[in-house]
Amino acid sequence: MLRLGSVELATRLLLAPIARYCDLAFRLTIRPLGGLGLAYTDLVNPRGLLRRTAKSMELVRTESGDQPLCVQLYGSEVRPMADAARWCQDHGAAIIDINMGCPAEKITCRAGGAALLRDIPAAVRLAEGVVRASRVPVTAKIRLGWNDGEIVAPSLAAALKEAGIAGIIVHGRTVEQQFAGPARLEEIGHVVTAAGPIPVIGNGGIGCPRDAADMIRQTGCAGVMIGRGALRDPWLFRDTHAFLVTGVVPEPPTMVDRIAFMNRHFDHLVHLKGERLACITFRQRASWYIGKLGDHSTFKHGVRTIVRADDYRRLVAKLMESVQCMTEENNHHGTARGRIDGLDKRSLRPDDGLAASRG
Ligand SMILES: Cc1cc2nc3c(=O)[nH]c(=O)nc-3n(C[C@H](O)[C@H](O)[C@H](O)COP(=O)(O)O)c2cc1C
Fold this sequence. Notes:
It is built from 17 helices and ten strands.
């Protein structure tokens, strides 16, 4: 499958860090669907972690059903990064990642994240320090470069390999591109060549199993990392793994499966954050699922204003009633799984366009 240093993953599919979205509640909900080899936390400030701030502790929170987990750290100073990496490996991290691609100014202005793309010696020193401090494998998540005139990913990958990095995740866009346009497969291929033999994981714009298969075939990458595609369609890991192994995509989830997924996500949030915060958080999270729910405007509008768990449960009960009515109607008219599931009938088409419009 895919090996990152001493850690062998069950599949070659990774869940991307998406700050505020791919949190513990989401990870616990998506993992049981299958196909996911490794999940990443949001980027974590090592100084905050060493001070045990509430925010940092929340970001690195994990539990036994959340393995294997990679904790992503950002920064530019070796000492706090190395100390934080040691703490993480003792508290549930199977792998540590160094963020070398975040374009946010509050991170680059302190020479961390994507600023490291412009200072390869500093990136290498940081990688060496974290690798030396860790007994678990260390990966680096990079972008192609700052802009088209500064494509550094292949030379950076070659240098990180020498520094002892166990794998490189490359988001196939430059910092200036942000999240727009398709991932640049040819450039990811150059990183694969430069990093050999350490595994390179391609990332960017994967919205269906075919996208993942194309990225692997065209770049030679060892695996792929999926972010926004998995928020829209949590079954994407299951489907992509099946497609890569057998060439066949499983039957799409039914509306009832999708509602059950939402319920589990909501329940995890309540359990982890308490009712009030769970409702506030879910109002925003639900927006990723609503697109697949068809024409159920009462639920769609209602979920944006929930304040208590009961508000959510009442809305879901109504949604289930209306789904069951539709199912019975469809069965009555002899269309079996037809119209309801037809909402999601899986075609191996490219991304539906949302990839570029988010984030
Ligand atoms: C809202 C948002 C938050 C993100 N947070 C992080 C992060 O914390 N660390 C990181 O390395 N990348 C982060 N990313 C980038 C993603 O991990 C990923 O590289 C990018 O979204 C491209 O993959 P995708 O097209 O599959 O989403 C974030 C992206 C978005 C849209």
